[in-house]
Amino acid sequence: MAKSKAAKRKRNAQVDLPQKLPKAVPNLTPPPDGGTPESTHVNAVVSDEELDITIETLAALAQYPSVTKSKACKDLRVAVYDFRQACTTGVNTAEGANLTARITGALADEKYIEARILLAEMRIRKEQPKIGALCRWVRDLDVVSGLSTQPKAHDNAPVKRSAKEMEILGVLDAILRVSTPIDTNTNAVDSTAPIAFQSIWDLRPSTAPLPVYASVLDKSILSEAPRSPSALRVIERTPGPLRKPPNHHPAILYTTAPNAVPLAPVGPPITYHAHPAVPGLGLALNVLSDAECKAIIAAGESVNFLPDAPLREDGDISILAHNFYWIIDTTFHDMLWARVSPYVPPSIGGRLVRGINRRFRVYRYVPGAEYRCHIDGAWPPSGILPDDTYVYDSSPEDKKQSSMYTFLLYLNDEFEGGETTFFMPAPREGTLNGYPVRPVMGAVAIFPHGESNGALLHEGTGVRKGAKYIIRTDVEYDVKPCEEG
């Protein structure tokens, strides 16, 4: 009897207590039917205000670890865990992975000290990252040397940098020390700065440069463009949003009829000069005549150079350069290759040289446009089918090819600035030696890429006055070494 009364009192007491409500299941809009595409912008899911409140709340709670362990924060801990599991970038994806993946994750999360520690481990273990990872690391750091804003930086004038820029340059230095030989130039200028600019390598002739850009502005250069509309025709057009990465402007590929942009049967006398300090870098002078350079610029200007302006989440528009994508005809290729082939390695590790990539990326740079520090990736040889279909990789199925050298052709040289600057690790840890190369009209800079060991970090230093026209393409080699007979 006593037990039943006690049980009744307990039941009555429980009725008077506040009841724990069941967790509400939020209504998902739209419902998870598996057919709805995932939102790609945060504002499609939550407002900016909600996101700011969430960030401020988490940042405040992070200052009090004991509070985050409390029962009141249990649901929050579950939500944070789910968010972390859903996140497919940064260190979250690299747990238990190799060094390369862990470095990639640390850089994605901007954990630069962690990245430097991992790079030091990679160096101690004598591991080499693959060229794709190396290119991605450098691209993610998004470094500008500062030479374009400091005309006398190579005279060791100080370049002002923020604390974050200094930290990023320290990571870049660590990356190069696992992939690039230490600079052995005993005459290099020493500096405790993150970049020690060396004197400009200047092989320009003493004669006055041609006013090429002036002829572009007054349109007189168009008299040297192809006359017939069929001589310069479009073979492919990719809308801006479908480009990789997406862009505000389309990518238009052109080609030319044979001799529409002519080369002389006998070119000017070429001289080749190896750079005194940067391994593998050379400059071949007089590859194209002044008239041949102007004819290429005229062809591009006749159809207009398009801005290269990638789509950004913040809505900003940043024009990197203006481009004219030209798949050269085989006649042009064969005549140009006959001129330059003596100045490139005939084979590398048994891989035979095959020619130049016919996909010419012709760029125009003006003040404010700068090609940031990067390492060139390898490209297959592009081509065109008889019906004018563009082929990204036209190498034979049983004899695949890929590039191992960059082919950088300068089309004018009357501008100020605009050097191609190469970077090597100095003997002093934390310092990169910067070697600017002055463009020379009609000359080709040739240097290695395609493999992580020896690929050269460089930038297209900004133009201070005028406009710079260049062509970027590649020297192609067999992918597989030839078999010894």
Automatic annotation (TrEMBL):
Keywords associated with the record: Dioxygenase, Iron, Metal-binding, Oxidoreductase
Keyword Protease annotated: no
Family annotation (Pfam families): 2OG-FeII_Oxy_3
Known cofactor(s): L-ascorbate
Keyword Oxidoreductase: yes
Domain Fe2OG dioxygenase, chain residue ranges per copy: 355-477
InterPro entries: Oxoglu/Fe-dep_dioxygenase_dom, P4HA-like, Pro_4_hyd_alph, Pro_4_hyd_alph_FE2OG_OXY
Comp. bias (Basic residues): 1-12
One of the record's GO molecular function terms: procollagen-proline 4-dioxygenase activity
Entry GO terms, CC: endoplasmic reticulum
PANTHER family named in the record: FE2OG DIOXYGENASE DOMAIN-CONTAINING PROTEIN, PROLYL 4-HYDROXYLASE ALPHA SUBUNIT
Protein name: Fe2OG dioxygenase domain-containing protein
Native organism: Penicillium coprophilum
